[in-house]
Amino acid sequence: KTEKKKKETEGHLKSVRADSSIREPERTITQVCIDPTQRFAAMNDKLGRVIVLDCSHFLIVRVFKGYREAQMAWLYYPRGHPHEGTYLLLFLPRRGLLEFWKIGRQER
């Protein structure tokens, strides 16, 4: 790809083939939240986990266990901003906690 084309498509959600799946019979996804850059998707499941998927590579990059009924949101700061990066916000109503996780790093 040319540099211009690469920049235009970099980080954008690409379509996933219908036969692409993660097969786990006991896991049911209850909510999906896609980040503003469309690179990551956070998913809640009935097992109390939040799974972060890198949509451009179809890879699970993080699994948070013990996050039953978590509410999810994304925060994105562009390059040049002091807090540059993509953050996953998780509100845990049972514990009354709000957590900020920088995706791509193990920081809270």
Overall pLDDT, averaged? Answer: 81
Q: Number of helical runs? A: 1
**Major sheet:** 4 strands, antiparallel
Helix content: under 10%
Structural class: mainly beta
Q: What shape does the CA trace take?
A: flat
Number-wise, the strands total 7
The order of strands across the largest sheet is: 1-2-3-4
Ranges where pLDDT stays below 50 over 5 or more residues in a row are 1-13
- Could you tell me how far the N terminus lies from the C terminus, measured between alpha carbons in angstroms? 36 Å
Cα radius of gyration in angstroms: 15 Å
Strand content: 35-45%
Order of helices and strands: HEEEEEEE
Element layout with pairings:
Layout: H1 3-9, E1 29-34, E2 40-45, E3 49-54, E4 59-65, E5 71-77, E6 85-92, E7 97-102
Antiparallel strand pairs: 1-2, 2-3, 3-4, 5-6, 6-7
Short recap of the structure:
With 108 residues, the protein is mostly beta strands. Helices cover 6% and strands 43% of the residues. The chain has one helix at 3-9, and strands spanning 29-34, 40-45, 49-54, 59-65, 71-77, 85-92, 97-102.
Would you give an account of this structure?
This protein is 6% helix and 43% strand. With 108 residues, the chain is mostly beta strands. The strands form two sheets. Strands 1-2-3-4 form a four-stranded antiparallel beta sheet, with no helix packed on it. β3 (49-54) and β4 form a beta hairpin. The longest helix is centred in the N-terminal third of the chain and has 7 residues, at 3-9. The model is unreliable at 1-13 (pLDDT under 50).
